[in-house]
Structures are given as structure tokens and as C-alpha cells.
Amino acid sequence: MMRNIKLTIEYDGTGYHGWQYQPNAVTIQGVMEEKVGRLVNEKVSLAASGRTDAGVHALNQVANFRTESKISCEALHRGLDGLLPEDIAIIDVMDVDEDFHSRFSATGKIYIYQILNRLHPSALLNRFSWFIRCPLDIALMNEAASHLIGEHDFSSFRASSCGAPHPVKDIKSAQFRREGDLLLFEIDATGFLHHMVRNIVGTLVDVGMGRRTSVSFRELLELKDRRLAGVTAPPQGLFLKHVKY
């Protein structure tokens, strides 16, 4: 009988060219499929909740695959613990219904973006945050971020490479909070466009530096022009935190 197995995966994306398999590059999917295939003694294809870009991390990426193997979920989990490199870890392994699909069954996602905002850089956090030396006004950034809430056309924050059929997304929440020297931006939405979170963060940083106002940030949504928004924040600060089902 064919089984449908769901994996919850944590990874440090620093050394990878993103999630999606590429024939001439090391990717999370490529490594995962090779290790899982070795354990179930079959060629497997993992479907993920979404693709993360090169350098982006995941706290709870979700993927599923189908197999005829009778290996238990516990044995599969232990086997992957022994085979996977140290920068990829399995959080959970479970059998799921036949109709479950990690991408198409998802109802939303939560991302976190980390900014290290202090005078000097960190040797330990440089792979997991965007270092910004000048002070950022978190109150102004949150005022601007409040304009993101609701259903909008996010063309102003959409990468030119984005293949989504339409640019309208529904944002449930978007807010910065400070934890010591870290500014954490958490955004919850039904879905995201390519580079959308990083483009939003790059533009909100302009607000925090006083280069833009909250009103001009809101107007970007109406203008629907990526050329008018800020820089794309670097990938190392971005984490896929949670996938909703």
C-alpha cells in the first residue's frame, strides 16, 4: 500500500542554493531526497510547502513524499538523524492522509526576519541576521507595517522573477519586536510572492532610517511599482517559521 509521509524540517540555508533541486548545485531538496531514498530503498520526490531561496533558513519547513516502504516513522526519523548533515534536522515524521499535500493543503505561512541593530557586528549572528549599524525607529516601522494588513496587490514588493499567477495576498499580521539587539519582523499571510518579505523589510528599513514616511510606504501599495520600493533585504535574516494547515 502506498503511504504518504509528512516531514517537518529545520535547516540552516547558508550552504545551500535554496530548497529546490538543481542538477549542478547543492540544495536542501536534493540532499533530502538522496537520504530519504537511501532509507526507503526507492527513488522519492519531496513536495515542499514552498521554495526557500539560497541562504534562507527554515524552523519548520514541511514536505511530503509517497512510498511503498514499510519502514516505521520512528525508524525513518532515527535514520535521517544519522544520515543528514548537521545543518539539516528533522523535527517530526508522520503518516498522513492520501490527499495531504504540503503545498496545496497549506492555508498560510509565517516568516520571521532578523535584523541585528547595534553599533558592532556579531561573529555568531552574521549568518542569521542583517547587520545594520545605524539606529532604527521601530515605532515608525510598525506604523508603516500596519498598512500591509488585509488583502492587497503586492506588485511593489514582487520580484521580477516571480511566477505567481496574481499579486494579491492577504496579510493577517506584520510587526517588529525588539529582543535585545535584535529586531524581529514577523509576518503572517495566506501566501507570499517571490522575495516579497525581503522587499518589504528592505523598504521598512528605509522608514526606520527616516528615508521614507509611513504615508509614502502606504502609497507604494497603490502605485504597484517595484522600482519605487527599497532594496531586497539579504537572505540570511529570513526564516520560514511555521506553515498552517
What would you say this structure looks like, in words?
The protein has 5 helices and 10 strands. It has helices spanning 28-40, 73-83, 138-145, 196-208, 214-223; strands spanning 3-11, 47-48, 57-67, 88-96, 108-117, 130-132, 150-153, 168-179, 182-189, 238-244. The longest helix is centred in the N-terminal third of the chain and has 13 residues, at 28-40. Strand 2 (47-48) and strand 3 (57-67) form a beta hairpin. The protein is α+β, with helices and mostly antiparallel strands. The model has no long low-confidence stretch (mean pLDDT 96).
Mind describing the biggest β-sheet? 10 strands, mixed
The amount of helix comes to 10-25%
Poorly predicted spans: none
Residue fraction in strands:
25-35%
The radius of gyration is: 19 Å
Overall geometry comes to globular
Order of helices and strands: EHEEHEEEHEEEHHE
| Overall mean pLDDT | 96
Number of β-strand runs: 10
Total DSSP helices: 5
Measured between the Cα atoms of the first and last residue, the distance is: 25 Å
- Coarse structural class: alpha+beta
What keyword list fits this structure?
ten-stranded mixed sheet, alpha+beta, 245 residues, 5 helices
Describe the secondary structure blueprint for this structure.
Blueprint: E1 3-11, H1 28-40, E2 47-48, E3 57-67, H2 73-83, E4 88-96, E5 108-117, E6 130-132, H3 138-145, E7 150-153, E8 168-179, E9 182-189, H4 196-208, H5 214-223, E10 238-244
Parallel strand pairs: 3-10, 5-6
Antiparallel strand pairs: 1-3, 1-4, 2-3, 5-9, 5-10, 7-8, 8-9
